[in-house]
Amino acid sequence: MPASYRRPPRFAVGCALAAIAAVLASPAWADPAPSFAELLARLDQTPATTEAGALLDAAEARARQARVRPNPTLALDAENAFGSGPFSGYGNAETTLSITQDLELWGRRTARINAARADAGTASLRRDLAVVDAAGRLALVYADAEAAERRATLAEENLSLTLADARAALVLVEEGREPLLRGIQGESEAAAARAGLDEAIAERDAAFARLTAVAMLAEPVTTIDVSLLDLAPATALSPTDQTPTVRVAEAERSAAESRIAVERTRSRPDVSASVGLRRYEAEDATALTFGLSLPLPLFDRNGGNIEAAQADFRAADARLMTARQEAQADRAAAQARLRASVSRVNAADAGVTSAEEAYRLSRIGFEAGRISQLELRATRTALVNARTAAVDARLARVRAEIDLARQDGRAPFQGAQ
Fold first, then answer.
1. Contact, 90 vs 81, CB < 8 A?
2. N or C terminus: fewer CB in 10 A for the chain?
3. How many domains does the chain have?
4. How many angstroms separate the CA atoms of 34 and 414, rounded?
């Protein structure tokens, strides 16, 4: 047998022990992330909510502008001046100073104001929906970062357990109670556990970087002290028709209906009234002038725009029907997923307790020589899987709470707003 197969794996196991010791003994600097509640309080500083707030400000400004009446037109006209014959020069000129005002008949101003108000109401609801979506994204990124941190911790624990089992197997190999193959297998398992730890650390760092960016933190996050995965979901309920998506769809439908009225008023003549003062130079006299003007609706009656507004209304009405149907289905699904995730968390916690006890008994039996290394490896793998499943179950519970919170129109893990 070649020498490489006869040597004990003590050197490789020792190197792995040194590697994990270096990881655990690294400088203890950490910049913990603010709690989810603290980040939620600063949600209005995120780009998504800032954009939605700016769009709302613009819509409210347009609503204020819609109330303003059109400016009057001031005109100065001169006739019969600087011509020929008796009209040479300015002696027989007629000068008129007039002011013209659009009367906005046929409810034109009211329709314009109502349409602008409807658009502002829609923008307000979209802002609320953007805040809810931003809160959900923040909760998901926060939970992903915490789950990645826990997985990295589990990977460290797995490496520690694997090395401990490898040391125990090495002792049995040296005592002749186990074949040399068991020591080589322990060395391979330690190397795989070390690679798993490196991968988990990389995923944790990436998740921390995403949390730092989404939360707009000045300093990079290196740890999470306040848990979100362990929080109990909120139990706030709201009617299906009160979900943010349905409210936005209803507002869009109302805005589309108000635009039909605007286009119909534009099909009617735009009447303007004028009053002025005319100066007769030849008679050295003045007189008032009055007038009304309106376009003749011979060619353009705004028919195309009216039909387009009516089509937009039908589309908005169809979107509202779809939103109501989807809201009902999505809410029922979110409630079902949340109930299932709560049960899954309880089952996972019970599984971790059982797996820990099974591994403890297997380790005692292995050291006493009553249990083989394969059985010990199986119980250790079951323990690692149970702990990972507990993290995954909590993350699934957070995702279910985020989905239900969006249907309720609130931030995750918060009461109804």
1. yes
2. N
3. 2
4. 17
Q: How far apart are the first and last CA of the chain?
A: 74
Q: How far is residue 166's CA from residue 178's CA, in Å, rounded to a whole number?
A: 12
Q: Per-residue pLDDT tens for 138-164?
A: 999 999 999 999 999 999 988 888 887
One domain, residues 115 and 232: yes
Asked whether 271 and 107 are in contact (CB, 8 A), the reply is no
DSSP string, 262-320: HHHHHTS---EEEEEEEEETTTTEEEEEEEEE----SS---HHHHHHHHHHHHHHHHHH
Q: CA–CA separation, 255 vs 316, rounded Å?
A: 9
Place of tokens 């040597």: 7
CA–CA distance, 231 with 394 (Å, rounded to integer): 9
Using alpha carbons, select from 152, 244, 235 the residue that is nearest to residue 197: 152
Beta bridge partners of 276: 98, 289
Q: Are 403 and 329 in contact (CB under 8 A)?
A: no
Q: Could you tell me whether strands 272-280 and 73-79 are parallel, antiparallel, or unpaired per DSSP bridges?
A: unpaired
d(CA 345, CA 355): 15
Q: Are residues 56 and 112 in the same domain?
A: yes
Cβ atoms 22, 110 nearer than 8 A: no
Q: What is the DSSP letter of 177?
A: S
| Full domain range(s) for residue 359 | 8-69+104-267+302-408
Report the amino acid identity of residue 116: A
Predicted confidence (pLDDT) per residue in 259-286, tens digit? 999 999 988 888 999 999 998 888 889 9
Of the pLDDT bands very low, low, confident and very high (cuts 50, 70, 90), residue 28 is: very low
pLDDT in tens, 73-124: 999 998 888 888 787 888 888 899 999 999 888 889 999 999 999 999 999 9
Q: 301, 322, 355: which is the final residue of a domain?
A: 301
